[in-house]
Amino acid sequence: MLPARYGRLVTARPDERVAGGVAADADQNRLDAVLPARSGRPPDHVLTAFNAAGDELDRLAGGRGRTWRAGNTVIKAVDEPVEASWLASVLEQRPVPGVRIARPIRSTDGRWVVSGWTAHRYVAGRTAPRFDEIRVAGQALHTAISDVPEPRFLRERNDLTSWADRLAWGEVLDTEERLGHGHGATVYRELAALRRPVVSPSQVAHGDLFGTVLFAGDADPAVVDVTPFWRPAGWAVAVLAVDAVAHGDAPIEVVGDWADGSDWPQLMRRAALFRLAASLAHPRTPTDDLVSMLATVERVDRFLR
After folding, report:
1. Domain architecture of the chain: domains with CATH
2. Res. 302: pLDDT tops 90
3. Which site among 96, 117, 270, 284 is 20 to 30 Å from 192 CA-CA?
4. Is 201 helix (H, G, I), strand (E, B) or coil?
5. CB-count exposure of residue 18 (10 Å: 0-12, 13-18, 19+)
6. Rounded to whole angstroms, how far apart are CA atoms 242 and 240?
7. Would strands 213-214 and 222-223 be described as parallel, antiparallel, or unpaired?
8. Does the pLDDT of residue 5 top 80, yes or no?
């Protein structure tokens, strides 16, 4: 079974959208741009805004308990309204050959976010350890969005996963000693010491493919949630490799099988550093998950040179 993904801390990340079609005033739009949604059931005015029937509302598994389905509409709480609106505008009509996309839904007055809630079309499927197919779906997504400019909010995002990513790339230092002083911190320092420059270009990359791609029989795989980073597309595949080995019982050979280009060892190194830093710094990382991540980093080491 695929594990639940960590949520972001501080500003938190989305995990799995006022009434009557009346246009929102400027104050409401400003509030929707900065206020995160509360947990629990979507308010009635949010359901109305997205033409969702409250009597059909069912909570979906995962999504930190903040994702609901009403018929063919999925409504979820978000903690980063600006990011959610940007992502919806990117994915609204963009074709991704061979991949089903959970297309975003506008509210009756044209907004992507209403009081901290967004909506998208329901797509059928379940997570499954079909890692080669997840990789191919991710590559198709990255090809489709390769021309999207870097959004400013990615540079300003200061949650735990963004910090762990920047630390992995050597863009910030662990000045607050969030990695601690134990064995994990030692492993991290040894891994980071062998970083070398990467020449692959950065683009918008989905940094959490593991657990966000669904399968339904012979239908194309579906991507239901995108966590954007500004990194090479190959790095996103490397993160998938780390997650698949650490949490999905994938064979270690996927690390070698998925090697693509001279940057692959360094992309894998940064992916391992990214996930290890997040595991070490997260205050609620289960012990078993941390042990699994440390074991994975040690097992992939032979592919990193």
Report:
1. 19-121 (no CATH), 131-303 (3.90.1200.10)
2. no
3. 284
4. coil
5. buried
6. 5
7. antiparallel
8. no
